[in-house]
């Protein structure tokens, strides 16, 4: 197995950027959380769409990384709930999916800031996160 090399980039104020990760597979959450925390981000994880929506009632992350294939309420349904809530509609969302063809079929109905294909490469993850957060001012 190859060695993962991450470069610390303390541009802007990563430490003040809270990222919510939603994935029903613990190992995926752990991987994403580890990579992002190495880069200086604060990370919270949840394992369902309902848990993500409940989290968003009390805290406002700078970004939501959302798996598409989560049980009960899939990622697309979570996006619809968020985008139909005036208090949350501007929340940046990046979908994580193993099936990008499905994303492009749904893209017309789902407004997100991007998507990352599984398996997630650490460098790709960091680039997407940085590019998405660059659009929002430092806290």
From TrEMBL:
GO biological process, any: phosphorelay signal transduction system
Pfam family, one: Response_reg
Annotated Gene3D superfamilies: 3.40.50.2300
PROSITE patterns: RESPONSE_REGULATORY (PS50110)
Domain of life: Bacteria
Keywords tagged on the record: Phosphoprotein, Plasmid
Entry-linked InterPro entries: Bact_response_regulator (IPR050595), CheY-like_superfamily (IPR011006), Sig_transdc_resp-reg_receiver (IPR001789)
UniProt domain Response regulatory: residue ranges: 18-133
Modified residue annotations for 4-aspartylphosphate: 67
Record protein name field: Response regulator receiver protein
Source organism: Nostoc punctiforme (strain ATCC 29133 / PCC 73102)
Organism placement in taxonomy: Bacteria, Bacillati, Cyanobacteriota, Cyanophyceae, Nostocales
